[in-house]
Amino acid sequence: MTEIKFDAKLKRRAAEALAAYASQIFDQQSGEWTAVVTLTHAARSETIKTEDDFEYLETQAKVSVADIEIVTGEHERQATQARDAARRQRKTAGTLLDDAFGGGQ
Questions:
Q1: What is the per-residue pLDDT for 78?
Q2: What domain count does the chain have?
Q3: Annotated region Disordered: where (predicted)?
Q4: Distance CA 3, CA 61 (A)
Q5: What's the rounded Cα separation, in Å, for the pair 90 and 88?
Q6: How far is 39 from 31, CA to CA, in rounded Å?
Q7: Tally of CA atoms within 13 A in the half-sphere of 105 that contains its CB
Q8: What's residue 50's pLDDT?
Q9: Is residue 16 a contact partner of residue 37, using CB atoms and an 8 Å limit?
Q10: CA 89 to the chain's CA centroid
């Protein structure tokens, strides 16, 4: 199975998206925020590994956060519904669907 790695820019992009809400976040004792995130392909690697005379291919895909925005108001409900529907679809299929990324590209 391919391992997914996140580019180091994730923290910076998330912090930028949250900056406008920093005071509200600080004022709350706890909370959660819904965000819309766009991921991009950053890199990939294939490494042949050997274990006790058995060779296998280890693959990694690295993704970067291209954009992230906090969703508020009416859009938050819509984003939450879309997230929940996507999660149900993924769990029902047991894996990402073949057409999940535009027809299996």
A1: 93
A2: 1
A3: 75-105
A4: 6
A5: 6
A6: 24
A7: 4
A8: 83
A9: no
A10: 16
DSSP 3-state assignment of 57? strand
- Across the strands, what pairs with 51? 54
Residue 81 pLDDT: 92
pLDDT, one tens digit for every residue, the chain (105 residues): 788 888 777 788 888 888 888 888 888 888 888 888 888 888 888 888 888 888 888 899 888 888 888 898 889 999 999 999 888 887 887 555 555 555 443
pTM metric for this prediction: 0.62
Structural domain harbouring 68:
3-93
In a domain, 13, yes or no: yes
Residue 25: phi, psi to the nearest 5? -65, -45
Kindly state whether residue 24 falls inside one of the protein's structural domains: yes
What residues does 71 pair with on adjacent strands? 34
Give the CA count within 13 Å in the CB-facing half-sphere of 103: 0
For residue 41, the Cα-to-chain-centroid distance in whole angstroms is: 11
